[in-house]
Amino acid sequence: MLFCCSTLSAQTKIEVKADTNYAFIGDIIHVDLYVESNQKLIWPSLKELVEPLEIQDLGKIDSSEVGNLFIYQQALALQSFDTGRFSMPSLAFASLQGDTFYSDSLALAFLGFDLDTTNAIFGIKEPLEVPFNFAEAQPYILTALALLLLIVLIVFLVNKYWKKPTDVEEITILIPCEIEANEALNKLQAKECLSKGLVKTHYIELTEILRRYFDREFELDTLESTTDETLDLLKQAQVSTVMLKQIRELLEEADLVKFAKSTPDNRTSTNFMNLSFTIVSNCHQMKMEEADV
Questions:
Q1: What is the Cα–Cα distance from 62 to 17, expressed in whole angstroms?
Q2: Is there a single domain that holds both residue 104 and residue 178?
Q3: Could you tell me the CATH number of the domain that includes residue 14?
Q4: Which of 45, 160, 168, 211 has the CA that lies 20 to 30 A from 149?
Q5: How many CB atoms lie within 10 A of CB 50?
Q6: Average of pLDDT values for 176-202?
Q7: Residue 23 is part of which domain span?
Q8: So what's the pLDDT on residue 1?
Q9: Of 119, 117, 87, 121, which is closest to residue 104 (Cα–Cα)?
Q10: Which position has the higher pLDDT, 126 or 200?
Q11: Which residues have CB under 8 Å from 210's CB, separation 6+?
Q12: Which residues, other chains included, contact 57 with Cβ-Cβ below 8 Å and sequence gap of 6+?
């Protein structure tokens, strides 16, 4: 009675079918596995079980559920390069409930080719000329074109974004520093920032023009320096006391505008603008006198 109940509770059907039982060495025998069970099964490892046969193609395990039955299907292709009879052993399918179900074994045979021994020596044949196949060469052609386009794009980008800044820098260096400073001061004056109420912008650009001039004229680095640090560097460059006083007044007034939100009147700002031209002229004149000495 218990045996009958167990048999009814574990309904499993396993089928192993081959498209042929005989094949020549190197040929393929296709095998289909079909399992139908009312329990979920653990699939066996087929690669080790079919040795010495080789699995050339192992399909995926297709599973579906129909009512209370689980249906599994898998296809594999077997191949052998040795002649003889082989037995695909019985496959064990274990269920999660602890039951094990076995398939039937499968007998397969791989046959050799009959050799023609009547003419054992053959003449040497010339290599066959294979005609050009555009479809086979197409991937290589497209790859070569893509590489060529990439090289052209790289050259274009280098010429456009990398060489031009270097050329501009070389041209800028050829302009004398006093001429560059005077041109920058004239451009700043033409902007009329003071009349437009852009006092802070005016003083920021004014001090940058003067610091850039000091750096080129006296070979200094004052763009990121404070007012006191800039004056110390100019003092080391032997700038006269009178010019140091004028430069200090201008830079300190600019600091008040930039950091203390001071707003000098237009007359004061105009005087400092005119003083900037004088500072550039006097500093350059001093540098020229030193070179003559």
A1: 16
A2: no
A3: 2.60.40
A4: 168
A5: 21
A6: 91
A7: 2-109
A8: 36
A9: 87
A10: 200
A11: 181, 247, 250, 251, 276, 279, 280
A12: 28, 75, 76, 77
Q: Considering only CA atoms, which of 20, 14, 63, 59 is closest in space to residue 40?
A: 63
17 and 34 Cβ atoms separated by less than 8 Å: yes
Final residue in a domain of this structure, among 92, 109, 126: 109
User: 237 — phi, psi (to 5°)?
Assistant: -80, 10
Q: What would the two tokens of residue 274 be?
A: 């005119």
Q: What share of the chain is helix, strand, coil (3-state, %, to 5)?
A: 50, 20, 30
| Count of Cβ atoms closer than 10 Å to residue 178 Cβ | 18
Q: Among 94, 109, 124, where does a domain finish?
A: 109
pLDDT of residue 148: 93
Contacts for 255-262: CB closer than 8 Å, 24+ residues apart: 255/227, 257/199, 257/200, 257/203, 258/200, 258/203, 258/204
What is the longest distance spanned by two Cα atoms in the chain?
A: 127
| For helices 163-174 and 134-161, angle between their N-to-C axes, nearest 10 degrees | 20
